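Hi all, long-time lurker, first post. I run a small reading group and we've been trying to get comfortable going from sequence to structure in the token notation. Rather than ask abstract questions, I figured I'd post a concrete chain and ask someone more experienced to write out its structure so we can walk through it together at our next meeting. Sequence below, copied exactly:
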Amino acid sequence: QARAGIISTVEVLKVMEAFVNEPNYTVWSDLSCNLGILATLLSHTDFYDDIQVFIRDVFSPIGERLGWDPKPGEGHLDALLRGLVLGKLGKAGHKATLEEARRRFKDHVEGKHILSADLRSPVYVTVLKHGDSSTLDTMLKLHKQADMQEEKNRIERVLGAISQPELIQKVLSFALSEEVRPQDTVSVIGGVAGGSRQGRKAAWKFVRDNWEELYNRYQGGFLISRLIKV
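-- Answer (accepted) --
Happy to help. Here is the structure in token form:
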């Protein structure tokens, strides 16, 4: 109804606030998706910082309940929920989540304590979103060293979280490099487009500037339509 302009978005936010004690992954996934769309729309306004505060407020109680480590007897949906919530809090700049993500990332890179598969994406996206050129270099090094394609893809999808314009350009150049399989290039560009307002503009310009190469690469396949959609 809000998307159709029938009710105010404020009403939607009020309803969202009522879900703070919700334990279900599917519900949180939907809330996260809708808040992501709202944050994208608000990234062009003065309300972007406010929506980040709102995200931190809504997601922090469930984040504190879940913690960082699996509890005995929890199901796979709890693990999915933990990854979703920590990633959302980390991207929104929740201080405790950011500090813990940085600590665990450092241990992971140094080989002291390897991150479990379900925590890698939220940790990677958090440190990148609030990281610098050395963070990106470390991530690209992890990509190069990864034995499994699954880990390479996981890293490719989150690289676009980086915020600085010159680093966004580095990620876009990386997307067309030989380091990335042609079928995975779209994931890297899509990650940039979804990462930030600056990323969206940069990705759009990059696609236009490299249109001939991209079109020749994918012809009329589904990947070209996916690229345009993102």
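A couple of things your group might point at:
Residues 1-94 form one domain.
The longest helix spans residues 48-66.
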